[in-house]
TrEMBL record:
Pfam families: Methyltransf_23. It comes from the Bacteria. Signal peptide: none annotated. InterPro entries: SAM-dependent_MTases_sf. Transmembrane segments: none annotated. Keywords: Transferase. The keyword Transferase applies. This is Methyltransferase domain-containing protein.
Length: 283
């Protein structure tokens, strides 16, 4: 099972729980496709106006930027920012090849930057990033400062607690448990989604105008289970480094899961719920 064999990655030291490999970037794109509906819902509810300049903080594969572009039309600029400059620049090239519209990218570590450059923006959006930060409320404060008067701050992040495999077997929820424990052990908050209103308050941002929880189910037949397995593969180097799981336990899980994937047609998961919160800044 060489594809499951983890190698200690430099991310175990930088504090990022996930990998920085092509395989992980493909997983991010697949995950983005699976959560597209959830993101469209919150973007629609927030009422993004045509022509608003947008910023996507922690833009990753650029799929959030692609969605924002659909809302604001071809004449507004959609800017991505990410600490992973290689991924961000590759995603920018892809977006410019595949979509009409104005796209930009800047390499930025939201935790290290005093402020977000290039603002104010009509929309500041971030998805599945706060989960990876040591100080989520400090980042939210900077994001809100970058919102123009009358503009929108829109945040989405997971409630990982809902992520569960059925029919259950011994350690069947290991991917969830390992991700949550790895985040906790590296000083992050794994319950970030449900805590968004509290995080807004700690950041000095007004209470969200609305919050929505959305999520689907993933079946063996639609490849959804594989996305979760990839997430565990991506987390494993950091998890082993931090001692939250042993190699033996992880390999036992992969073997059990592989066996069930072969023998149980109805293997499925309740996906992590996506929690979205948005607030409009006063004029
Ligand atoms: C799970 S991915 C989500 C990517 C994208 N927002 C999406 O929803 O598909 C987390 C992203 O946050 C970025 N990130 C992590 N820490 C960051 C930081 N301190 N500053 C900026 N970006 C960061 C990672 O490089 C990665 O691209």
């Amino acid at each position: 099972m060489s594809q499951n064999a983890p190698s200690i990655s430099p991310n175990a030291d930088s504090g990022y729980a996930l990998g920085r490999t092509e395989q992980e970037y493909e997983r991010l794109r697949e995950q983005a496709r699976r959560f597209e509906e959830a993101t469209q819902l919150i973007l629609r509810r927030a009422g993004i106006p045509d022509g608003a300049h947008c910023l996507d903080v922690g833009s990753g594969s650029g799929e959030g930027m692609r969605l924002l572009r659909r809302f604001v039309g071809p004449f507004a600029t959609v800017t991505g920012m990410d600490v992973d400059g290689g991924l961000g620049r590759a995603s920018l090239r892809k977006l410019r090849d595949e979509e009409s519209g104005r796209f930009e990218f800047h390499e930025l570590d939201i935790e290290k930057a005093d402020r977000i450059p290039g603002g104010p923006y009509g929309v500041v959006f971030t998805r599945l990033v706060l989960l990876h930060l040591r100080d989520a409320s400090a980042a939210v404060r900077k994001m809100y400062e970058a919102v123009a008067p009358g503009g929108l701050l829109i945040v989405q992040d997971f409630d990982l607690r809902t992520w569960e495999t059925f029919p259950a077997f011994e350690d069947s929820d290991l991917p969830r448990d390992v991700l949550m424990a790895t985040l906790r052990a590296s000083g992050k908050e794994p319950l970030i989604g449900p805590k968004l209103p509290e995080i807004f308050r700690a950041a000095g941002v007004p209470e969200p105008d609305e919050c929505w929880r959305t999520g689907g189910m993933a079946f063996r037949r639609d490849g959804g289970i594989e996305v979760g397995l990839e997430l565990l593969r991506s987390t494993l180097p950091a998890a082993l480094h931090l001692g939250v799981v042993t190699e033996e336990r992880a390999q036992r899980f992969f073997s059990s899961m592989e066996q069930r994937m072969r023998t149980d047609d109805l293997l499925y998961q309740v996906s992590p719920t996506m929690v979205g919160a948005w607030v409009r800044k006063a004029r």
